[in-house]
């Protein structure tokens, strides 16, 4: 019985190390999304930190600030969804089959 427990602990440690490596890889990834046919482009890393915002000059209209705001929101939500999807895909392999609510 003690041998089984030691073996299981080693497997858990190995899985934890793989999870940390996968999480580090995710954090280093770059994600990009655009809205308005490329008028607004948002870039973020896997930590959900916005690293760049590119706005084409022709979309900046002082009389229509709401449109620009909507484009920024749409591109930001899209890039955050991409990060969530990639995180679920990459980290989900570790929680597959485990009934653990709140895990990825």
TrEMBL record:
The keyword NAD belongs to this UniProt entry's keyword annotation: no
UniProt KW keywords: Cytoplasm, DNA-binding
Comp. bias (Low complexity): 1-23
Record's subcellular location: Cytoplasm, Nucleoid
Annotated segments matching region Disordered: 1-24
UniProt cross-references to Pfam families, sorted A to Z: YbaB_DNA_bd (PF02575)
GO molecular function annotation: DNA binding
GO cellular component terms, A-Z: bacterial nucleoid; cytosol
InterPro entries per UniProt: YbaB-like_sf (IPR036894), YbaB/EbfC (IPR004401)
Presence of keyword Transport: no
Annotated PANTHER family: NUCLEOID-ASSOCIATED PROTEIN YBAB (PTHR33449)
Subunit architecture: Homodimer.
Family: Belongs to the YbaB/EbfC family.
Free-text function comment from the UniProt entry: Binds to DNA and alters its conformation. May be involved in regulation of gene expression, nucleoid organization and DNA protection.
Record protein name field: Nucleoid-associated protein D1B32_10575
Organism, as annotated: Oceanobacillus profundus
Lineage: Bacteria, Bacillati, Bacillota, Bacilli, Bacillales
